[in-house]
């Protein structure tokens, strides 16, 4: 079941489903500093991009630091 849903972009996003919220955050006039954007359907399961409430795990400085470190390791890009 998960494979079937993932293949349709319903659980695991695809490049195509991740692009609209990223573009909205980057260039939309209505995007705000510190805003969080994602699909607007219930559970962020799809739909057009729009503002979202920041997920509780994203409020943690420790989690943010871990995500930053993992991003640098996975991409091979470091920011100082």
Automatic annotation (TrEMBL):
Keywords: Signal. It comes from the Bacteria. Residues 1-25 form the signal peptide. This is Short chain dehydrogenase. It comes from Mycobacteroides abscessus subsp. bolletii.
């Amino acid at each position: 079941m998960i494979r079937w849903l993932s293949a349709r972009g319903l659980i695991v996003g695809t490049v195509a489903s991740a692009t609209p919220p990223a573009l909205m955050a980057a260039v939309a006039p209505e995007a705000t500093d510190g805003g969080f954007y994602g699909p607007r359907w219930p559970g962020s399961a799809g739909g057009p991009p729009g503002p979202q409430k920041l997920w509780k795990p994203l409020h943690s400085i420790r989690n943010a630091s871990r995500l930053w470190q993992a991003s640098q390791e996975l991409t091979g890009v470091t920011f100082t």
